[in-house]
From TrEMBL, chain A:
Alphabetized InterPro entries for the sequence: EboA_dom (IPR047715)
Organism per entry: Bremerella volcania
Name of protein: Uncharacterized protein
Automatic annotation (TrEMBL), chain B:
Region called Disordered, residue ranges: 281-303
Keyword field: Hydrolase, Metal-binding
Lineage: Bacteria, Pseudomonadati, Planctomycetota, Planctomycetia, Pirellulales
Molecular-function GO terms, alphabetical: hydrolase activity, acting on ester bonds; metal ion binding
Similarity field: Belongs to the metallo-dependent hydrolases superfamily.
Protein name stated in the entry: TatD related DNase
SUPFAM superfamilies listed in its UniProt record: Metallo-dependent hydrolases
Naturally occurring in which organism (per UniProt): Bremerella volcania
Biased segments, Basic and acidic residues type: 292-303
């Protein structure tokens, strides 16, 4: 049987919250359901004091239920106060989309760090998601890496809502600030020539500054690699560190073009490991950060 | 020795200051909401200022290993703009419940006008409603009258003195403040408020109980190392170490700890969730540098 996101959140909180915390949350949700904004603002702030800040203890099955209830929802890093705050937001009447949007914007504009993380992760479960595409673009301008990652990582909304321009900025900025690319949902699906060109330019900037080039870059640049990019990859495949060579091999395998095959043949051993699936982007990301 | 600076306006300080503070042993700081050296003209400026106190500044401090807290309030100077003050009162509930807010403040008197008194009283009631301590700013001019009047009003509102820190004391005010049971804070601020040699004498005379040392360093000529410098001077001049610990660390912890939002474990053993959200992301130190203090020979080189 399948559950709704509200049912799942309620169950997860019920497992971990104290009786007092649970009772507090129930009362606040009732108040918020009457469009009492002061209650929403105060309860949203007070949630960690009332229900605690522990990580949600989720099983494989919980995560599968989540993905079934909302495709792309990956709550494995959520905390109990985050779940409680999302339930408060989901209790807010939403028939009037402009009013709903305005209230959420007020919360975004006045949020502290963990509240912002919560809000950006919450949007995927809330009504009127399509009204928040500008908010996502605004969010990725942050200087705070954990907030950036609450949008970019384990969140289906950028893939679903962002314009190509905003999407490309998000991917480039992830590389720029040292956030992994692998947890970006839809990363391979939304590759595009503009993004590949931006990434190759970025790789050249890094090389000129004698700074390392993030290895995940090649995953996104390779599908549209031109001669310049192929030349870069040929050079790194010949003389880069092992992690770079693995990443280049995996990137080249995915392009399936003749020039890529020629480069791969220069190191058949790594090429074979990439072709057989022995090397994965997930592992490369884990080693890189 | 570890220090807490429970009154510093770090929003207007540089990363050099943060590095120096961390090196001198400052583990935690409290940034009271105040004015910015010129009056704000609309409520949006207050909203963004409060947001930076609960958000970006907390993050910025954490990059240097310093835990940042704040107090939220409408300061006395800007309480005199009634139309604006009303709007600020409306947005305060959005901020008082935030996680690093340890008091309502700094509030009190500047010119001792009727409007200043009105918003002092309203905010005292707000503090009662959300169960937070209060930080009182005492005026530069007419200080003694302003300080006594503030305490009278607090007593009318039946807020117990152990929940209130009276700041910017001097030799003339501290005896009465201590006698009535309040926390007495002293601001070591060059040329105007209090010098640290005078501070040493005050601690020798009154002892360490309920006395708190802070810097109030801000956009003016001031010293973000005032607390460690004063603590070290006390040691040098024969004040017992435990008295230094009380006045430069433990008393602030006890006073603001009453908020439930200010605990030593926050900086000694941060919870994993705090470490993930505060300390990992590192954009102040661009390019993945780790926080460090430059060696003199590195000064010419910018990597």
């Amino acid at each position: 049987m399948s559950y709704t996101p509200v049912q799942l959140l309620e169950n997860w909180i019920l497992r971990q919250a104290s009786d007092a915390g649970q009772a507090w949350l129930d009362t606040q949700r009732e108040a918020v359901a009457t469009s009492d904004l002061k209650s929403l603002y105060m309860a949203f702030g007070f949630a960690p004091r009332k229900v605690g800040k522990a990580d949600l203890q989720l099983t494989e099955r919980d995560l599968n239920d989540a993905a079934e209830a909302r495709p792309g929802w990956m709550p494995h890093a959520w905390t109990i106060d985050q779940a409680a705050r999302v339930l408060l937001l989901m209790s807010l009447p939403s028939e009037d989309d402009a009013a709903f949007h305005a209230t959420l914007e007020k919360l975004f504009q006045t949020a502290e760090i963990r509240e912002q993380i919560c809000l950006y992760q919450a949007l995927q479960l809330l009504p009127h998601q399509e009204l928040f595409d500008d908010r996502l673009s605004e969010g990725i301008r942050t200087n705070i890496k954990s907030i950036f990652e609450s949008i970019a990582h384990n969140n289906p909304l950028p893939m679903e809502l962002m314009s190509e321009q905003a999407w490309n900025q998000m991917v480039l900025k992830a590389l720029f600030i040292g956030a992994a690319l692998d947890p970006i949902e839809g990363l391979d699906r939304r590759v595009n020539p503009d993004l590949a060109r931006m990434l190759i330019d970025f790789a050249h900037e890094r090389r000129a500054a004698k700074r390392p080039i993030p290895v995940e870059l090649w995953r996104v640049a390779a599908p549209f690699a031109d001669e310049v990019a192929l030349e870069d990859m040929r050079a790194l495949f010949a003389s880069g560190e092992q992690l770079e060579q693995s990443a280049i091999a995996l990137a080249l395998v995915s392009t399936a073009c003749d020039e890529a095959d020629v480069i791969l043949k220069t190191n058949p051993e790594i090429a074979k490991r990439a072709e057989s699936g022995e090397i994965t982007w997930r592992e490369i990301a884990q080693q890189a950060y | 020795m570890k220090f807490i600076d429970p009154h510093i306006h770090v929003t207007s300080r540089t990363t050099d200051d943060y590095e120096a503070m961390a090196k001198a042993g400052v583990a935690a700081i409290i940034e009271p909401a105040f004015w910015l050296g010129q009056p704000r003209t609309n409520v949006g400026s207050f909203q963004d200022y409060f947001s930076s106190l609960v958000g970006f500044e907390k993050f910025r401090a954490a990059q240097f290993g310093i835990r940042h807290y704040c107090t939220i309030g409408l300061n006395s100077k800007e309480a005199n703009n009634e139309a604006l003050a009303e709007q600020v009162m409306e947005i305060m509930p959005l901020f008082l419940a935030k996680e690093n807010v340890v008091a309502v403040g700094e509030i009190g008197f500047d010119d001792m006008t009727a409007l200043e008194e009105k918003y002092l009283r309203l905010q005292l009631e707000m503090a009662k409603e959300v169960d937070l301590p209060v930080l009182i700013h005492t005026p530069h001019r007419n200080k003694k009258q302003g300080t006594y009047r503030s305490m009278d009003i607090i007593e009318e509102h039946e807020i117990p003195p152990h929940l209130v820190v009276i700041d910017h004391n001097n030799e003339e005010t501290c005896e009465e403040v201590l006698r009535r049971g309040y926390w007495a804070a002293f601001t070591i601020y060059p040329k105007t408020k209090m010098g640290n040699e005078r501070m040493v004498e005050i601690v020798k005379k009154y002892g360490p109980e309920r006395i708190i040392v802070d810097s109030s360093a801000d956009w003016g000529v001031s010293d973000p190392l005032a607390v460690p410098k004063t603590g070290n001077l006390m040691l040098e001049r024969g004040v017992p170490e435990e008295h230094v610990e009380l006045t430069c660390y433990k008393n602030a912890l006890a006073a603001y700890g009453q908020s439930g939002q200010f605990e030593e474990s926050d900086w000694l053993n941060p919870e994993p969730i705090d470490q993930r959200t505060l300390f990992e992301g590192n954009s102040v130190l661009r390019g993945g540098q780790t926080p460090r203090v430059d060696k003199p020979e590195d000064d010419r080189i910018i990597q």
